[in-house]
């Protein structure tokens, strides 16, 4: 949980949690004056971390001290007190970016330069037929049709610089 020490004040570390009913963002930071906590941007006053251990934490909020028994399984937190229990699901701190790539897209395997375009939009191609050749790392890489079909588009030309996972062409498979 510690956010690290800084010589000057900084923003809160944030973590998003959800239950079956709601989602909320907890912000926290440790400062010389103690623990600063906010929930959905609203500061909680008089919060003190009294003790932390492998089985839970003791926190005092507005003078009331409570032991929270905590267990984490991947991104799921099980928290219980004498008053009851609740399960939280923590949102990944750095979620994996998901890029929607249309079905039938031929992608560049790495950054490079297009050295050859062997087919044009509207052409019928066979499985394994070369569509585009790129040069990367002093080698030529053949981008071939994964199945038989008709090229819907060819989105690059000779000399173009391409990025990794850039769409080079689109193929509509035929049966």
Note the main attributes of this structure:
nine-stranded antiparallel beta sheet; four-stranded antiparallel beta sheet; mainly beta; 175 residues
Structural description of this entry:
The chain has 175 residues and is mostly beta strands. 0% of the residues lie in helices and 56% in strands. It is built from no helices and 17 strands. The chain has strands spanning 13-18, 23-31, 34-39, 42-44, 47-52, 56-61, 64-73, 76-81, 84-90, 105-107, 112-117, 124-125, 130-136, 139-144, 149-154, 161-162, 167-173. It starts with 12 loop residues before the first strand and ends with a strand. The model has no long low-confidence stretch (mean pLDDT 88).
Please outline what is shown here.
This protein has strands spanning 13-18, 23-31, 34-39, 42-44, 47-52, 56-61, 64-73, 76-81, 84-90, 105-107, 112-117, 124-125, 130-136, 139-144, 149-154, 161-162, 167-173.
């Amino acid at each position: 949980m510690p956010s690290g020490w800084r010589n000057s004040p900084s923003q809160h570390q944030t973590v998003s949690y959800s239950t079956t009913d709601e989602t909320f963002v907890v912000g926290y930071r440790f400062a010389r004056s103690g623990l600063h906590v906010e929930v959905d941007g609203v500061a909680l006053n008089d919060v003190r971390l009294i003790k932390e251990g492998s089985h839970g934490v003791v926190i005092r909020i507005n003078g009331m001290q409570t032991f929270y028994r905590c267990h984490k399984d991947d991104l799921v937190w099980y928290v219980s007190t004498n008053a009851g229990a609740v399960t939280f699901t923590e949102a990944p701190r750095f979620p994996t970016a998901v890029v929607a790539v249309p079905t039938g897209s031929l992608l560049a395997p790495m950054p490079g330069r297009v050295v050859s375009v062997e087919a044009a939009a509207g052409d019928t191609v066979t499985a394994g037929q070369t569509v585009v050749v790129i040069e990367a790392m002093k080698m030529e890489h053949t981008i071939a049709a994964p199945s038989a079909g008709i090229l819907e588009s060819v989105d690059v030309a000779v000399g173009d610089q391409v990025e990794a996972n850039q769409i080079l062409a689109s193929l509509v498979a035929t049966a």
